[in-house]
Amino acid sequence: MTKSALQIARASYVPKMPEGLKGNVDIREGAATQSVLDQEEIQKLFPNTYGMPVVQFIQAAGEPGVSEPVNVGVILSGGQAPGGHNVIAGIFDGIKRLHSDSKLYGFILGPDGLVKHTYKELTADIIDEYRNTGGFDIIGSGRTKLETKEQFDKGLEILKKLDIKALVIIGGDDSNTNACVLAEYYASINAGVQVIGCPKTIDGDLKNEQIETSFGFDTACKVYSELIGNIQRDCNSARKYWHFIKVMGRSASHIALECALQTQPNICLISEEVAAKEQSLDDIIDYIAGVITQRAEKGLNFGTVIIPEGLIEFIPAMKKLIHELNDFLAHNQEEFNLVRRSGQRDYIISKLSKENADIYASLPETVARQLTLDRDPHGNVQVSLIETEKLLAEMVKKRLDAWTKEGRYKGKFSSITHFFGYEGRCAAPSNYDTDYCYSLGYTASMLIAAGKTGYMSSVRNTTAPAAEWIAGGVPITMMMNMERRHGEMKPVIQKALVELNGAPFKYFESQRDQWAVETDYVYPGPIQYFGPTEVCDQPSKTLQLEQKGNIE
């Protein structure tokens, strides 16, 4: 592998980790837990892994070790997120410290590798090539769902053959839901295989009291914020364009909010606020056009608008439409596919309720079509394919043209659209993600040594120096609730949305009116890996506000 100068320098970086994981560890168990919602249903579905305690690791006397080698399998599941390689490195170092003959096997291209028995042993030479690097290319990732007994049994064949005692699934909420189901099944048949999850998603929507943040969020937001800052500097230099910038975040607006806190744009839409205020698409267009008009009155015919990827689904009327579309297509996809493309719009209109049919009919042709494209593996519309940034830019232009005729707007409006997605998913991890991910992986190895299954690796107190971080595990069932998927109620991990009463949003809310009319941009610049702690090791603004109540 040819390496850049930065990769060569980063290879020697030793991740910082909690004192509680250094040397030997003891485990401290809390009280019994319950699921966040739907307790009776979740307990019935997970009788063997429900109600387990939250656990914490503390330093103990002596050296760590076990009498027999511990063979572990690892899967990277779902979309890429910066730091995944360091999770694997942390697992490797952890199990090697437990016993030098322990082995780590990586299943190729995600859960599919477990089912199809495609794997490779991850040796020290391989691990060392990938330490502190971005991407998931050490073994690749995939989106195959582990949900059937046939898959579980097929996977168990290779786990038994390789004498693997534990499987670590590194993924987001859906992947960890699969991990929870798999842990329950293997426990129910006494398979002798533990299953541990690690919280990954750049979207930031896998978090709770025990999981402060999902890995990759910090790095991705810093990458997007650098790009937004660059655009804002160009914007402030040319002074003639409005930039509509869509960022990742299908189910929550954490990325949009964090990027706004880092860059101070003129407008940032928060999907959760749109839903809470029951705003219509017209309301949103009026708000954006209003800010543009205010700036035009000051001679400022330029600005930036940050848009979360999943905005459309949070507009109440659109949410109802999409919900009905998802349910309809879950049961009628084949019939829909047989309809000629030219007739698909009318076909859908004829099948929807009157209210939703009227909304669907009012949408531009391109957006209407995007709402009926192939579903994701969970039966949901792929909102990243909906060009919300272009839709808003076009509709704002129409609104401003109308206001010009009415004498309400006297500025000049030109727009440029952007979508930042893949740019942040495989970036070289920030120091925060480098350290956090390594600690998550090492913690997973300690959960395995402690005999735990159905747990998610947890590292908390991460706005403090790494030595003060708190490592442990949280039962995955604790995060579960019942939701409709593919037209049926299924147990899934509850997504964490932006809290409108939380400190990050409240701070943004207190500043946004000023940011709207002023040109008070921040230009964060690229991620720094070497230098002063206050430059290199800063956690996200979101975490700082959540835990400290202020931004450093």
Strand fraction = 5-15%
Strand line-up across the major sheet:
1-2-13-12-7-6-3-4-5
The number of domains is: 2
Query: What is the name of the CATH topology of the largest domain?
Result: Rossmann fold
Radius of gyration: 24 Å
Distance between the termini: 38 Å
Proportion of helical residues: 40-55%
Mean pLDDT reading: 95
CATH architecture annotation name of the largest domain = 3-Layer(aba) Sandwich
Tally the helices: 22
How would you sum up the major sheet?
Answer: 9 strands, mixed
Number of strands: 15
Low-pLDDT regions: none
- The top-level CATH class of the largest domain is Alpha Beta
| SSE class | alpha/beta
Dominant shape: globular
Pfam family, one: PFK
EC number: 2.7.1.90
Family: Belongs to the phosphofructokinase type A (PFKA) family. PPi-dependent PFK group II subfamily. Clade 'Long' sub-subfamily.
Pathway: Carbohydrate degradation; glycolysis; D-glyceraldehyde 3-phosphate and glycerone phosphate from D-glucose: step 3/4
Provide an overview of this structure.
Helix 3 packs antiparallel against helix 5, helix 8 packs across helix 9 and helix 13 crosses helix 15. The two termini are 38 Å apart. The chain has 22 helices and 15 strands. Helix 7 links the parallel strand 6 and strand 7. Its EC number is 2.7.1.90. It is found in: Cytoplasm. Homodimer.
